[in-house]
Amino acid sequence: MPEPIVSIREAEIGFERGNPLLVDVDLEVHPGEIIGIIGRSGIGKSTLLRTIAGLLPPLSGHIDVPTGRGDVGYIPQRLGLVNHKNVGYNVMMGALPRAPFWQTLFSLPGFELRQSAREAIDAVGLSDKVLDSISQLSGGQQQRVAIARSMVQKPAILLADECLGELDSETAKEIIELIQNLAKEENIAIMVVDHNPVRVATFCDRVLHVKGTQIEEVVV
Amino acid sequence: MKILQHLKKRPSIVVYSIIILLAITISNKLGLTIENLDQAWGNAGVLWSEMFPPDFSVVTDRASWTQTECTWEADWACSAAIHGLSETIQIAFLATLFGMLLSLPLSMMAAHNLSPIWLSTITRNFLAGLRVLPSLVWALIFVIMFGPGPLAGVLAMTLYTIGYLGKLQYEALEGVSRHPLEAARAMGLPRWQIARYFALPEASNSILSQILFMFEYNIRHGSVIGLVGAGGIGWYLNNYLGVFSRYDRALALIIVIYVAVVIIDQISLSIRHRFMDSETHAPRARWREIIPFFNKREVQK
User: Fold this and answer.
1) pLDDT tens digits for B71-82?
2) A220 touches B at CB < 8 Å
3) Residue numbers of A between 131 and 160 with CB closer than 8 Å to B
4) CA distance B57 to B75
5) Residues B198, A93: contact at Cβ < 8 Å?
6) Which of A97, A107, A159 lies closest to B292 in CB terms?
7) Tell me, what's the pLDDT at A199?
8) Most CB atoms closer than 10 Å: which of A109, B18, B97, B148?
């Protein structure tokens, strides 16, 4: 078993001390692994992802996450795309953490970064939409943009919060394929929050069920 | 008892009564009486008779006493109205440009969602300090420092623009969705990149609209700061109202300012409409070509 990319030990997760959403969280995530997180609304699934992403501090315990620039990829519930910009711009944003300072200062990414963005856009099937603004795209196409951004970023771990939420089954299937490719080809660890336990079981290596304040591993 | 019950059912009567009572008391305290108004009507009559008809020679005849040198051959181009107005527009343009360039980084520093609390507090207080004095008072200060002329006007309006535009911009930046900012933060990007590549594009339409509004505002105020010698059409207006006592020419200048403001207002409105979707009123992605990550040439390759 390779070294875990994320390691959480005896952590309490939530917003206020004394009233944690999750307690005794012990979790290890390995490269190339896809982990599904299920549970009812408001129970703390998104808070867990935001804590791993470094957006919230744990209330107690230890969380070891890679700290290099661009090592963590996060797709929030509403995807976190820049809606006023086009597809190309949003995908290029994934290259920002690794772009040299001068290129980011003058907004002039080098050929390699542009090429990697082009390949990612081709891979998610949006080659004809490069100059379309995000608001012109359907929900499924927006998901593809978010995934293409992560493909360019190449994080060690990708945290996707309900990225399959409102998609029809056909589109969800396509997005799942992209996620699986990302894990296999790039060896990226992926954590996906979803409401649908049956769907999660079909593509995740492990499924975690958040019940009350505890996380239980479900046998897939 | 019945009256009290009635008032309880309709509390608005009590509120309106209190407001009217307050207005009457304050008016008496400030000396806004009918007698004073009567006297004002008399003075207005005199002013009216001297103002009409407006003398539009201010638009056609060369003014030999322009504040800055006028080298145009055509007389109308060096008239008090056209020369003054063009100077006002130039002052407003420079003040808006410099104000925008300086307020943009300051507004990023002042936005709570982009900066640490200590930095945003210091920057907000600095911007508030610039807004404490209206542009007219800034103009007065700079006229004393640099002497009368457009330089004082540009400096005064630039400072006011930084304070005012900075506030509007940091409010627009704070209004952007937290999701793109969180995605960027998780990537480990520094604050300036989050501000520039995520927050600024999301707020770009509001910011553009505010810049156009500020340009209009500066043209209107450019007419006022001339009254204290800071250049522009206001300086000519001040002379016609004061030294020359030519109210008919002053009225002609006021009409010229009004027409100019209405035209600029319409132009600005139509530009702002180009950035908004007419059906949904949602901002359009029109700024996409400005940062050349992906342009059409690149796609066609």
Assistant:
1) 777 777 888 888
2) no
3) 131, 133-136, 153, 155, 159
4) 11
5) yes
6) A107
7) 87
8) A109
Judge whether A55 and A73 are in contact, CB under 8 Å.
no
The answer, yes or no, to whether residue B99 has pLDDT greater than 90, is yes
- In whole angstroms, give the CA distance from residue B132 to residue A47: 43
pTM of the model: 0.78
> Who has greater pLDDT, B229 or B286?
B229
Q: Using CB atoms, which residue from B179, B187, B202 is nearest to A84?
A: B202
> How far apart, in whole angstroms, are the C-alpha atoms of residue B225 and residue B84?
12
Domain ranges across chain A: 82-155
Window 272-291 of B: residues touching A by CB (8 A cutoff) are 282-285, 287-288, 291
The DSSP string of A196-213 is -HHHHHHH-SEEEEEETT
Start and end residues for every CATH 1.10.3720.10 domain found in chain B? 76-300
In angstroms, what separates the C-alpha of B197 from chain A's closest C-alpha? 8
Contact flag A131-B282 (C-beta cutoff 8 Å): no
CATH number listed for the domain at residues B76-300: 1.10.3720.10
